[in-house]
Write a structure and sequence with these properties.
By secondary structure, the protein is mainly beta. The protein is 9% helix and 37% strand. The N terminus is likely disordered. Keywords: Signal.
Amino acid sequence: MCKNLFCSLLLLCCFSFSFAQIHYPQEKHFKNVRQLTFGGNNAEAYFSPNGKKIVFQSDYQAWGVSCDQIFIADLKKDDLKKKKPKMISTAKGRTTCSYFMPDGKHILYASTHKADAACPHVPKSPSGKYVWAIYDSYDIFIADLNGNIIKQLTDTHGYDAEATVSPKGDKIVFTSMRSGDLDLWVMNIDGTGLKQITRDLGYDGGAFFSPDGSMIVFRASRPKTEDEIREYKELLAQGLVQPTNMEIFVCNADGSNLRQITNLGKANWAPFFHPSGKKIIFSSNHFSKRGYQFNLFMIDLDGKNLEQISFDNVFDAFPMFSPDGKKIIFSSNRNNGGTRDTNLFIADWVD
């Protein structure tokens, strides 16, 4: 017990520092912030339709994986600090972008396992710039909650990934190279009725439907100059994209009324609709002098009223609201002990 003012102030400072690692004072939209994972790179966590479970990807070696695999967790029952969550993917190849199907009993995700059981080689940019790998062996699968693959939705050679489901339960949007560029495609929930909905040159990805299923939000690069176009095409031919210059776009679910929402510069990505359907939350480094600091921002559909939401000094991304709009989950470098670990955090959302 503290017996003097100095001791009391010291404890207060220590408490504030510890608290600030999880929840920064400026984060007025967050309440009851809780850390869910405690090691590795954990990302793209998305709620089940009833909001009780999450599905996410992780490369945490303590869980016995060498590259990203898909895991599921019960938000009330599973303590991920104490035990490994249930793996849904095959433990072969590399996976990405998992999402619950409308029945809550199946998972949608992309995987390279049919091409090779080993983790694919991580390529490096010939210019030394930061790049993402676009593996042509990715295809989209549906699995049950025991990890049994029920159906393969895509089998076209080339990148098929980043699939998410409409809240209406009728459509899936995903990114594909089948047109020769990284465009958005929509299909019926059973994989039929393929339709291309974007056609402009550049990487279109990370798409999500609005709460009522009427609109789609996504990130996109739009190379304009001859040099930008040449570089984009040269990297794409090597299975690479440079994600350092992207903006947020919105269109109707059928691809009509396509419009650009942000014009901030640098990398604006990982968008998701606010529960009202009238705003978008996304990750951005447009304000950062260092380039690698990403925080969450929110903006109206008309591109006005930009508001900073998160304030970690390294990285916040992949926000998703629960189906009832009461919670938000996101990935962050906060409270990682100075490592490069990216962990999952969940909070009550305060409008």
